[in-house]
Every structure is written in structure tokens, then in C-alpha cells.
Here is the input.
Amino acid sequence: MVSTPSGLARAALKQRCDRIVTGHPAALPQNEMLAIADWMARHEYGADEYGTGQLIDDFEHKVAAVLGKEAAVYMPSGTMASLIALRIWADRAHNPDFGMHATAHQELHEELAYRKLHQLRGHVIGQEGEPLLARDLAYLDLPLSSIVIELPMREIGGRLAPWEDLQRQRQIATSRGVRLHLDGARLWETRSFYEARSYAEIAALFDSVYVSLYKGIGGLSGAMLAGDKAFIAEARTWLARHGGTVYRQYPIVASAAMRFDARLERMPHYYQRALSLARSLHALPGVAVRPEVPEVNLMHLRFDMPPHRWEAARDTIAASERIWLGKPRAVAVQPVTDVEIYAGEGLMALSDDEVVGAYQKLLVLARMSGP
Here is the structure.
């Protein structure tokens, strides 16, 4: 019988696993707090107050410099950062209309906050299953204040527009007076695809840039919003209006700052690890890798079975072998299971044979479990 724990039991099952296929292994809370305390002591950082303090100031300047922008501001979440950017561009253009892909975070994962909180109007552009391209911008006949471009596009497997196409998008936007906002939640992962162009070169194509501090970097949470000085000054005002100037933020900021340099250096290695695993998985019947050749260290795996059977088999393997194989993503196509794989420190500690063998065992268990 295949066991099917749920809720808190399933979370506890994952925590007992000492091998994970996707992402970075999470440190125990007590160990994370000790590491943060030690790092702050060595750098002689004190506590911040309502978002001001040497630690936050130093890290904001560092991220701004990496992105080639005049300034940056720390924010509790990427949702807040991008909403604020869209609001600023809308106010300056006196136009509440902005463009986004159908898979944009603003449309899928924020309860339509752009509409409910800011009375903005989002318009879907681009083709289903494809990254946003210059041709999509060229066909627009609606005046827009800004366009959100996600690099890479998570919901379609980490896809990216070619570099020359991005440059053309910038030209079209400039000619029409449209601002480009970069949803760079996973921007740190893109340099290998763009032939090692610097983050500053990539960010230079955009008027404002949001980057995550916890996805690829592995901090506890948080984000940075970057742009020119006037933009960031305005963003700080909106940060206060959103209630984002939390009294103490230093543990969260430090958790990202202390990992920042090392994780950026590791990104090319994560990408090569993703390529290797994708090649190995192509030989496993019953699993499709999307895209066939990963463009960043992120890919989607499609299994020809319903999610409840996939999860039950995964849980059985997790309990017996203490390896966590991911979780299903919501998909429109049924009955299949899509699983996102992010090549991070978890996958770096595993061989292709280990991972492929675990998925092979999952397929056998799921087929034995019936409908």
C-alpha cells in the first residue's frame, strides 16, 4: 500500500529527508540564527531601525552596483517591489495600463493586487508557452505605461528571450515611451544563457529591476528594487505606504548578504548541473524534460500520471530513502504531473544516477498504485 500523508505530516516527512533534488537545503533555524549572529559580529553590524542601518545601507549599495543602477531599496517581498514599480510608472505616465505575459506573477500569484490595491489595468501580451518577444511588443496598439518582463520565465520552464530580441524590445519600448520593469526573481540564474554578460549589462535594458534575495541566493526572504535615484526615492515613499518599513529586518537581510557573493559564483556550476541531469533524464521513459535543453538551472519534468499517484509514490520514497523529489505544480493539462527542478546545492550533492534511479522507482510505485 502506498502511503499518502498530508498537511503537517507531509511537511515533517520532507524535513526528515537528508537529500533534496530541487533548491538549496534549508538550514535548521537554530543553526541559521547562529550563522547570522556570527557573520554580523565579524562584520561589526548592529541592528537596523525601520529599514535604516549600516547593514541594509551597505547591501543596498552592493546590489545596486552589481545591477549597474544608481540605487536600490530593500523590500520584504518581490510582490511589493514590482507593485510599487508598476505604480510609479503608471503615475508618471498618467496611465494605469501595463503589459505582462499571461504567466506573469502579478496575474497568477498575487490575488490581482495590481487591480485591487492600485487600480492598475493589466493587459496580457505574448504567446502561450513562449517567452515574451519583440514581435509581441511590435503588435501592440494600446498605450501602456510599462511592461513587466520576467527573466527567466518560471511558469514555462525557465525560458528566456534571445539577447538580440531583448535589445529590440528595449528599442521598441523606448520609441513608444514605455517603461520596462524586470521581474528578476531569478535574474541571478541568467548569465550563462546570455554568454556571461554582466548583470549590469542585462539590467541596463530595463528602467527598474526587482531581484529576489531568497530564491537563488538562499536568504530567509526579501527582495531588492533597483533603478535611478529619483525612482528609488519615490519607491521608498511607497514602501512606507505599503507598511514595508518593518521595525527590525537585520536577520533577513544578513541571511542573504552573507551568502550573496558565494551563491553568485556558484550559478554557472548550477547551470552545468542542470544540463547534466536533463541529459540523463531524457533516457528515462515516462518523463519529459521541458525545455529539452534547460536555458537556466531550472526545468520542468512532466510525468504521465495524475498528481495524487505521483505524490503518494514520492512520499513512500521519502519515508524509506529520505530523498525528496519535489512537488507537483498546478497545470491545465490533465492527468499529468509537472514538477519543477531548480539545480542548487541540493542537486550538487547528488549524482545523476541517484536522481534518475529515484524517479525510476517513483514511476514503478505510481504504476502499481492503480488509478
Summary: The first strand starts at residue 19 and ends at 20. The longest helix spans residues 260-281. The radius of gyration is 21 Å. The chain is about 45% helix and 15% strand.
